[in-house]
Amino acid sequence: MVMASAGVNVPGGDEVRNPTAASASTPECRMRRRHRLEPQGSGDAAAAAAPGPSWVRRLRPAASRFSPSPSPSLSPSSSQSSADRPNDEEQEELDHEVEVELAPAGPQLEPGEAEGEPEAEAVAVAPQVWPVAFGSLSMAGRMRMMEDAVSLHPDLCTWAADGSPMHFFGVFDGHGGSHVSALCRDRMHEVVAEELAREGATFLRRRQESAASGSAAWSERAEEERAWRAALQRGFRRVDDMAALACACGRVARPSCSCPLAGTSSGIVGSTAVVALLVRGRLVVANCGDSRAVLCRGPAGTPPVPLSSDHKPNRADEKARIEAAGGRVVFNNGHRVRGILAMSRALGDRLLRPEVIAEPEITVTERTVEDECLILASDGMWDVISNDIACNVARQCLEDGNPPPADPTAGGGGGAPAAGVVVVAAREAEPRCLRAASLLARLAIGRETQDNVSIVVVDLKHRD
Amino acid sequence: MVVEMDGGVGVAAAGGGGAQTPAPPPPRRWRLADERCDLRAMETDYVRRFHRHEPRDHQCSSAVAKHIKAPVHLVWSLVRRFDQPQLFKPFVSRCEMKGNIEIGSVREVNVKSGLPATRSTERLELLDDDERILSVRFVGGDHRLQNYSSILTVHPEVIDGRPGTLVIESFVVDVPDGNTKDETCYFVEALLKCNLRSLAEVSEGQVIMDQTEPLDR
Lengths: 464, 217
Hints:
The complex is a heterodimer.
Chain A: H1 2-17, H2 22-49, E1 57-59, H3 70-81, H4 84-102, H5 106-109, H6 116-125, E2 132-139, E3 148-158, E4 165-175, H7 179-212, H8 220-245, E5 270-271, E6 273-279, E7 282-288, E8 292-297, E9 305-306, H9 316-324, E10 329-331, E11 335-337, E12 347-348, E13 361-366, E14 371-377, H10 379-382, H11 387-400, H12 432-446, E15 453-459
Antiparallel strand pairs in A: 1-2, 2-15, 3-4, 4-5, 4-6, 5-12, 6-7, 7-13, 8-9, 8-14, 10-11, 14-15
Helix pairs in contact in A: 1-4, 3-4, 7-8, 11-12
Chain B: H1 41-50, E1 59-68, H2 72-79, E2 92-97, E3 106-111, E4 119-128, E5 133-141, E6 149-159, E7 162-174, H3 181-211
Antiparallel strand pairs in B: 1-7, 2-3, 3-4, 4-5, 5-6, 6-7
């Protein structure tokens, strides 16, 4: 029944779209996206300027309007390539269309979570619908300057192969100044989206060539991963190139900026970057520096899964790379490249090249229905909160809707009580992701972290 | 590799002659900021004349040099600003100094985040505008550079047929607990190289800006 009705609607959609010029619809989509992004920008600014909640909302892939359009053109070619995967993909596409039909007024889905029908539908089709909800919090902590930045861009773009939404989340921990982390916050998602579009086009072309040649070597999964990795690598490189042109006033220009700050404060300024792309049932994480991404798997007691590895100078392979580049690691209030910088990879930091590079390490992880949440945070949190404790705190916040005891001991050793100043007063109405992030931040402050703290919590489960 | 001036073996004493040093010491090898070769004769002579340190057993000493394509008066005008090191030093976020720049002045330097210290208290030991010599001593702060003292000299030269500047900076410092002399020299040299490279960029940038101004101005 559902399949049949969806099938009937697809041609209808085409007929409706035919009179409209393709070029005309594109600006509307862009305007819609730009409009959607504006509140998030202000939210980020609020988080960076003063401690406080940032933009929070729950998303479902079905809310995307881009999925119907690729379906007709893709179905014939996908059916020709292989028997099993096209069916799965078609089912996902059909599910999206069903969701759209059930709730044709898109805006109604975005403000809240009260709709009963979408949730019921989502429950019925799980695990083929991959939910995403998120919250974040940043605070300066005991540092005088706030140099962290957070970037939240759900529904950043769609993957060319099947129109699946791609969600972007990033944490950037600046040092020596804030303009490189601010640059990452403002530009990284745009650059990555451009590279994903480029890689998507390449992917489609290669798939067609493979199908035409009758090659049996084509692996959809491997090729997709290759494309996503390439897009992230190029994205990081492009933002790092921009950092070299960035003035301390925040402008990126060639020739050099002519403001009074030009030429100064441009040497030892850089940022970490940990970025997560969520697409269908996969988590793609790119990391450069010592921020971190951790996957919290259920049920309670399951060990957390690190999705990134900190780039510390005394990590054996990093130390070897540094020394091969002619540098040295010297202990100076911690292991440091040249005795100066406590991380081995960062965007910016021109004066510490070639030892300090901006190349990300990328992991691709398959989601499971048991996954609880994804945590991205700067080392201001990870220095004082272990992966286990962070996951337990987040899990309890997300499951119960109520904060757990101030210092949970499950899964980790007892730590110092969170006796610090209460920076954020949790409100009952706030989404649980934000509550998890704010509780983790409060715990980090209570444990006397000395650094800025930035935390993004992404809920990977449907919760009533 | 860096040859440390340690163990009391320093450069030849002024006027000492052969009487004090029976056997002449091997020639000193200094590492240039951007070149891995011996200093040329002129540079070695500058070091001998201006950069005398007498490190003790627990100290190390070394020097770095940088050739800058900018006239000497421009470079000196930057380095002599004891009250505003952030003009060219990439590690400095803020500096406070009261009164005029004179021998004995003390400045409070705030260091940028992410680096192994947050502040440094520094005293101006010598400022010679005729010979273009600047000497600074660290007298406080949360860094690990105890009894740090540096000498910076600026010398005119010609690079590619244009006025250029040779900058030499030498230092002596205690070796912190847990580090070797070699490590300490390497670290301080790394700091000084960053400073000199940034100084070169700022100076040469100003030269470019000057050259683009109208000729009739």
